[in-house]
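Data card: per-record layout.
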Amino acid sequence: ITAEQEALTRRLAQRFTAGAPADHPAVQEDVDAYRRLIDEKFYPCNTLVFRGLAELYVTDERFTAYFEAFAPGFAAYLSQAMRRYCDTKETA
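The structure for this 92-residue chain is written out next.
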């Protein structure tokens, strides 16, 4: 599970460093896979929960530091991509 989550995070970080916008379809597909992984392996993760995680990733320094280790600026980018995902999905 950890390896799968890290692989998704690395792929998203690579998209970020390559300049893909947070709303790019490939980014959004990876974000969807990330949400589904959380939902299936950890805890129920509807869009309300996922939006809360997006906020946590930029407001809790522990999470921010984790994501910034992949690439500077990545925590904010991932948060933005997650919020965009939630904006386009029904709350379920």
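Known properties of this structure: The helical segments are 2-17, 25-41, 47-59, 61-68, 74-88. DSSP finds five helices and no strands in the chain.

See the next section for split statistics.
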